[in-house]
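Subgroup meeting minutes
Present: P.N., E.W., G.H.
Scribe: E.W.

1. P.N. recapped why we're keeping a running log of single-chain structure predictions: easier to compare across weeks, and new members can see raw inputs and outputs side by side.
2. G.H. added today's entry (425 aa).
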Amino acid sequence: MRIFCFLALLAMSAQAETYTLTLKQAIDLGLTRNPDVTLAKLDQIRAAQGVPLAQDPFHPHVTAGSGLAYNNGMPLSIEGSAPSVIQARASEDIFNRPQHYTIEQQRETAKSAFFGTAQKRDDVAWQIAGFYLDADRANRMIETATNQISSFQKVLDTVQARVDEGRELPVDARQAQVNIARARVRLSNLESDRDIAERNLAIALGYTANDLVAPSAADRTEPVVSPDEAAAVQTALAASPDIKRLQSLLIAKGLEIKGTEARRLPQIDLVAQYALFANYNNIQQYFAKFQHNNGEIGASITIPIFSGTGIKTAVAQFETDEEHLRVEMQSAKDRITMGVHQSYVTINRAKLSADLAKDDLDLSRDRLTLALDQLNDGRATLRDLEQARIDESEKWIAFYDAQFNQERARLDLLHQTGTLAAAIQ
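Output recorded in log:
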């Protein structure tokens, strides 16, 4: 059983792949392979196919068959037609206002599906960027955390030697051991975060959950955002696929109301029929004139006289739906405006934090240089030097956090304005 489990794990690991991509490559690949984008495209195709389906009544429909039958006595009709060897019927809508509005409504529905796909693409690009940043952040911090464990180990060795010599208390050695354990827990958590982020990134790019997508070591170009918040709000409102989708649905609902009201109008259909009769039985005894080929062409006109209360009630329901869409659209505009404002606030906060983290890091590096000089002069111990390195590694971790928070805030603003995929180079 153990051998079987080992072989199964070996087979799974052999099938897993690791792909190293830049952020732009990841987004470009995700926009073509992501399952959610694929499903949205299929919904868009299905909605577009509804347009020719709605146009179908305005195209000729021809059926042919036979009404051949044996009759005795007065010739009876079969489905409204006299017994015939061959019969054909053609029909086509000429004037059908409800169906006309249905066609226009279906076109708007197809547009809304297109905007829905665009919205899904923007959301997927933002999701991929988030997973990518998480994986890159964890990857960089792992290197720093590993070096930090090495420094903690050197401190422990120094402290333990001093404890053995009676110049340090045992509690100091215990503290050094706890520091190593804490650093190892941090490293383990970072490795788990990287694993989860790289697996989520692989799934978002259309790979399997066993695959990994690792961020490229190449430096990324800092995304450029507009300094003008008001202009960014207008760009976000104008480019928002969600607002365009709601606008299209609102137009479609208006067409649905018009189509329902148009059910009170007459409907005209073009109708043509042909029948080939056979001279059999006693059919000539009941008709003064008989001929084999018979046909007619004309129009079928239907005029509604009393439509009941259904149309009025349906229009009232559709008007309620229309008002619901208007409220939803205003809510979307307010949400986008607030989202852009919040992004600018977050960017400003992240910049201040990044500047502070950079100054703090520079200070710790100066202290490390000072500790090195003091060690060479005999005014500092190796323990002091390693403690300075530990402090510097903590400042590096804080600096990485501030850096990634700033980049995430910028990418979030690009997502709000709908320019994320285009801005990533």
